[in-house]
């Protein structure tokens, strides 16, 4: 059996009123706490009377500045005197041509002879007027190489072929000396080229101004496998 309450004892009807009332009281207390002011009851301290007399002030004298010095007197400008540009100078110059020329002066023609060029005996020329030539010309030289040049066995075995450039000096009597390899290919070809040139017959020496001179030559010797 359910318990029944009388309408007058039902408190749920007044919940909203109590809530609003509590909220209003809380807000009021909060505002009162913020507005509350407390004062200190301590007695005020007596700082005493001020004895300074601010009326008796020292009079500061006005500073007087000295007047500026007077300006310097103006400088006197120099007086410019006009001088004429041209002054005629009269001077008489007497010229006396009292010379009796009876002999005719003959001026000899001066001939400047070219000084002879002294050529050193040991000087080696790279370029001369007349180039050295081998016996029989270049065709004779090629024939000499074909008969005396031997293909090295090492170079043939290794398949080396190419051109060896040999440098040598031809003396005034046509003999050959100072044979060197300028560019070689190896495999014994360089030594064979030097040997062939050293054993070559005498050349016709090079000439400079009609005189035989020592000349430096550069010749290629070609090795080619057949």
TrEMBL record:
Pfam families: TonB_C
UniProt entry tagged with the keyword Cell inner membrane: yes
SUPFAM superfamilies reported in the protein's UniProt record: TolA/TonB C-terminal domain
Residues annotated as domain TonB C-terminal: 136-226
TM ranges: 15-34
Subcellular localization, as worded in the UniProt entry: Cell inner membrane
InterPro entries in the cross-refs: TonB, TonB-dependent_transducer, TonB/TolA_C, TonB_C
Coiled coil (UniProt feature): none
Membrane topology: Single-pass membrane protein
GO terms for cellular component: outer membrane-bounded periplasmic space; plasma membrane protein complex
The name this protein goes by in its record: Energy transducer TonB
């Amino acid at each position: 059996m359910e318990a029944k309450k009388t309408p007058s004892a039902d408190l749920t009807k007044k919940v909203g009123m109590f809530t609003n009332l509590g909220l209003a009281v809380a807000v009021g207390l909060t505002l009162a706490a913020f507005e509350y002011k407390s004062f200190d009851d301590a007695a005020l301290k007596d700082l005493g009377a001020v004895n300074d007399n601010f009326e008796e002030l020292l009079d500061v004298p006005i500073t007087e500045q000295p007047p500026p010095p007077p300006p310097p007197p103006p400088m006197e400008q120099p007086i410019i005197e006009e001088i004429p540009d041209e002054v005629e100078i009269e001077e008489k110059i007497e010229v006396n041509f009292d010379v009796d020329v009876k002999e005719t002066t003959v001026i000899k023609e001066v001939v400047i002879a070219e000084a002879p060029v002294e050529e050193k005996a040991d000087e080696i020329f790279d370029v001369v007027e007349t180039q050295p030539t081998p016996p029989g010309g270049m065709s004779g030289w090629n024939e000499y190489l074909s008969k005396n040049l031997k293909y090295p066995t090492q170079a043939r075995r290794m398949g080396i072929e190419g051109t060896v450039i040999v440098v040598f000096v031809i003396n005034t009597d046509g003999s050959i000396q100072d044979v060197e390899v300028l560019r070689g290919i190896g495999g014994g070809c360089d030594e064979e080229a030097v040997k062939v040139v050293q054993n070559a017959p005498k050349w016709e020496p090079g000439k400079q101004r009609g005189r035989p001179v020592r000349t430096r030559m550069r010749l290629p010797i070609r090795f080619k496998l057949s």
